[in-house]
Amino acid sequence: MAIPSAVQIARDLVRMETINPPGNERECTDYLGALLEDAGFAVACHDYAERRTSLVAVLLGNGGRAPICFGGHVDVVPLGDAPWSVPPFAAEIGDGKLYGRGSSDMKGGVAASIHAGLVLAGERRGAADIVLVVVAGEETGCDGSKYLAGIGALPKAGAIVIAEPTSNYPYLGHRGALWLEGIARGKTAHGSMPELGDNAIYKAARAVAKLEGFAFDGRPDALLGATTLNVGTFAGGININSVPDLARFTVDIRTIPGHDHGEILRILGTLLGDEIALNPVVDVGPVLTSASDPWVREIYEHMHKLRGETPEPRGAPYFTDASALTPACGSPPTLILGPGEMAQAHQTDEFCHVDRIEEAAEIYAAIARRWGGLMQ
Fold first, then answer.
1. Which residues have a Cβ under 8 Å from the Cβ of 288 and sit 6 or more positions away?
2. Are 180 and 253 in contact (CB under 8 A)?
3. Distance separating the N- and C-terminal Cα atoms of the chain
4. What fold characterizes domain 6-174+286-371?
5. C-alpha angle 227-229-235 in degrees, rounded to nearest 5
6. What are the structural domain ranges in the chain?
């Protein structure tokens, strides 16, 4: 069977509309699972909700070394209000770019890892299993990867590559995310008699004012920077002439290693007091691998040969499925390395450079061969 190119796989995936919510990733995983099964992978699919399907595909090696795992997600964010100049799900190619929602974030990366797996399936087996993990529901808090971790569907791995957008530059980790919803409750009354009510918006506003001046203790991480806090939304009331009995706001906290999410929640709860109920919406931890790790040094060496320069340690500002996959796989060294453009993620007229998708597939295959002892 002829192997489809990495770009063709990417185009096929972009044409499958997987906006989350609601998601509907099953079409993607069915398509990819069939390709991988035909090539000799053992494929297992897992639904954490209706049509919210993730897959784990394994190509057995000869033993002697822990598996290497490649991971990515196939859900995408909504299109937004701004009009697109290209059809968002037509996967058109122009000026060396593949256009479409998810092309950079991150169906181009998933396609490259799948293509690499298909190529490797036709070669001599190395010492290690090759594991491809394609998940649903990353954009709303790594739901699919958390589910796989919870049911024990992931093997212990020796190394992990997450194919999120980095322009094929190896990143050592990313910050975590703790998203909170703050809820203030009061008592409604007629707007002409506010003394009879209890204004929930005032309570929420006082809380937000406290958060504006809040600063986290501790030194910033050299790669990931500081833990940050941003109030993203604020809403309350039902009409202008009533005292509001409910107000809500949301808080986006991005964390570095050493800042425990449970402790952050406790500190903020004490700061805001009994007027505010704080509820976690997304809770995913940071991931960071040392630049001195032997495998990382090998990847840096390979990238030097490929590009003529040794990579400098970098950390990504976004979170990835590594938050769930890395601890579930035994906390091996983890790199974020994918063909997409960071700046294109969630953008109108999103695109990914075609040559980067092809390059990523070659990089992933080389990483797997080296890990399996098939090249030096």
1. 172, 173, 174, 221, 223, 224, 257, 315
2. yes
3. 29
4. Aminopeptidase (3.40.630)
5. 160
6. 6-174+286-371, 182-279
Task: Answer whether residue 376 shows pLDDT above 70.
Answer: no
Euclidean distance between CA atoms 78 and 332, whole angstroms: 33
Question: Which structure tokens are listed for 353?
Answer: 């450079």
For tokens 């972009």, the residue is 14
Nearest to 306 by CA among 329, 346, 337: 337
pLDDT tens string 245-275:
999 999 999 999 999 999 999 999 999 999 9
Residue type, 18: T
DSSP secondary structure letters along 46-85: EEEETTEEEEEEEE---SSEEEEEEEEE--B----SSPPS
Within 10 Å of residue 44's Cβ, how many Cβ atoms? 13
List, edge to edge, every strand of the sheet that includes 276-284.
228-236, 246-255, 176-185, 276-284
| Cβ 76 vs Cβ 346: under 8 Å | no
**Chain centroid to CA 69:** 15
CA angle 70, 71, 73 (to 5 degrees): 150
Compute the distance between CA of residue 116 and CA of residue 55 in angstroms, rounded to an integer: 16
Cα 97-81-201 angle, rounded to 5 deg: 135
pLDDT digits (tens, 9 = 90+) for 104-155: 999 999 999 999 999 999 999 999 999 999 999 999 999 999 999 999 999 9
CATH number of 182-279: 3.30.70.360
- What amino acid is encoded at 223 in this protein? L
Phi/psi for 184 (5° steps) reads -115, 135
What token pair was written down for 124? 């001599």
The DSSP element (H or E) to which 14 belongs, if any, is: helix 6-14
